[in-house]
Amino acid sequence: MKSHAEAAAEFIKDGERTDWHDETLWFVRAKRDLAAHGLPEWEQLRDWASEIKNHTLSNISQYLTAFEKNANANGITVHWAADAEEHNRIIHKLIKDNGIEKIVKSKSMLTEECHLNEYLNHHGIATIDTDLGERIVQLRQEPPSHIVLPAIHLKKQDVSDTFHEFLHTEKGNNDPQYLTEAARIHLRDHFVASELAITGVNFAIAETGGFVVCTNEGNADMGAHTAKIHVACMGFEKLIPKAEHLGVFLRLLTRSATGQPITTYSSHFHRPRPGQQMHIVIVDNGRTRQLGRPDFRNSLKCIRCAACFNTCPVYRRSGGHSYHTAVAGPIGSILNPNLDMKANADLPFASTLCGSCSNVCPVKIDIHEQLWKWRQVIVAEGYVGAGKKLSMQGMGFLFSHPNLYRFAGKMGRFFMRIAPFMVNNRLNPWYKQREMPAPPKESFGEWYIKNRKK
Questions:
Q1: How far from 444 is each of 115, 449, 450, CA to CA, in Å?
Q2: What does R_g of the chain's alpha carbons equal in angstroms?
Q3: 135-168, pLDDT tens digit by residue?
Q4: Which strand ranges, in their side-by-side order, compose the sheet holding 103-105?
């Protein structure tokens, strides 16, 4: 597996695509700002959401027990999965026990985290992803690159080529309406034939034993309303205490995600329809461990809006696949080291620590501070290369000795002026994608001393 830096280097070889990816996501971020600023109570909503999540996580056992009791009373079968393997086995057993052959799935990052598609494929069972973006990347045998916009790394030409290959659409026809219509016809056949529908869960309500699924395409509803078995999969952090809390999160979710005032479909599921089975699989998969880490438990407040993706200068310029995990971006760089610290040791370093992610987070997760703390844990555990460790120790020594720092700065500026090739070469990672700036004549410190009495 390539590290984030290696995979990002592959992505940015196509400069035009990198710029387009950056600008597209910044457009989404700008829409988020307009939507947020249109609500005078925006910061109050963020405070409430953060406090509700804090309270829920602090009393998670009580609320999970209440949810199970109320869901069972509604006729929903509740399953508990300690890890991804158990989650997949539960769903596989439901499929086998009921003789299911036709399965549709709406977008669920938890099933991506558990690698459910790969597990079922290994057992000879095909699953059709019905979210348009997810279906596009599934046809291309790629993972989603974004948790809200799974195919955001692809241009319409890429989609046209993919549909021509797999759906036999007209070659070279890039018209979005034509491509969307082709996808609609293709997916409708799968909806009509489906016997089991898998959905995610955006919010589960302990008070009612019901849950809410948010989509813009209505694909979760199409699957759940036609199949005889509905299986919903959720991490336990999706729980909220009461139905009256839902409005807080629904007002924040899509404004933060895409700048929309509300998700097109916010569907409430409380009980199976007559003759239908409804199951919910509640997954831990390392969440209890994260809950027990005081510095990182806040990450479990995440409502998967991806606002931190859209604003992150590193994500926008390196693409989602460079994070080599189901949940990419800043929040994924906090969540994934908890799952496998060694395999994901590179991710907390894929950040400028600028704090923009924390500023836009609708539930006020201190994302950039947790990234900084993960770096310290990962270094202490010995999961960084010797070169990075030595260079950071050298920088620490330099920054703690002001006279040496000023001397090194002066010498660096001098050599950059008389011998620019010393920094403008391929050994300097900063030179690979940008022109190095001309060295200033003096440092800010020198300028300040000279001008402070003026």
A1: 51, 9, 10
A2: 24
A3: 999 999 999 999 999 999 999 999 999 999 999 9
A4: 77-81, 277-283, 229-235, 196-199, 103-105, 128-129
